Amino acid sequence: MSKDQKQAWLDYSKGITIEHIKKAYNNPTSFQAEFNVVLNKLVAENNLQSAIEIGCEAGISLMLLNKSLSQSAFLDYDHTILEKVEIVCSDLKFKGTKCICEDMFTMNSIPNESYDLAYNSGVIEHYTKDIREKAIKSYTRITKKGGYVIVAYPNHHTFPYRLSYLIGRMLGKKVWPWPKEYKFYDLKDEMKAAGLNYISRTTMDRDTLFKQWVTKYKITRKFFLFLDKFMHFEGYLTVCIAQKPV
């Protein structure tokens, strides 16, 4: 990760308060809620007991999943956001939680094959393919044999989001405050390079498509809803699932 990108996320996290995290947990976004359905289904069907959210930031996704697990690990390189996550987990009386301040490309403190599920959302899109491969190999190392690696990211192959992203970036950080995102369809190559068995790519959360920068206004939202009748846009969030061989 470049120093500029790392600093951008550190700056962004400074504005996240303990109250904000609690509010987000009680009122998750549509993509968090729909992603949680996928995660819960996988956990239940495969009797998974432990999970780590890599690059967790506020950790909302894993908080939503916590009750289905025996062990929940929140990993991020920003110790200040993890301190807030730790307080929230204690206040909400979550069980079996731990916070790990590590770089996701090394995770040196975590032994091989530690978790049934390693996943993240809204992280991998900020990296080129060679760096994505390095990251997913790192995720794979800490995943148990027979366990799962799941990676979710914004879908640049759905027109409303792609247009919002391009125009937002063009208008500057006040409109689009996050670092650059790369456009890729799936992670099949990267997951196979990590020795994983690629299972599927799916998309979800069409609701967010019509709340993006370009589509949040009444007139443009109506226009894109009209286009959707013919183009059947994919959802905002892409989710790729793979399994580590036994």
From TrEMBL:
Methyltransferase type domain ranges (all copies): 53-151
A Pfam cross-reference name: Methyltransf_11
Protein name: Methyltransferase type 11 domain-containing protein
CDD domains in UniProt: AdoMet_MTases
Lineage, opening ranks: Bacteria, Pseudomonadati, Bacteroidota, Flavobacteriia, Flavobacteriales
InterPro entries: Methyltransf_11, SAM-dependent_MTases_sf
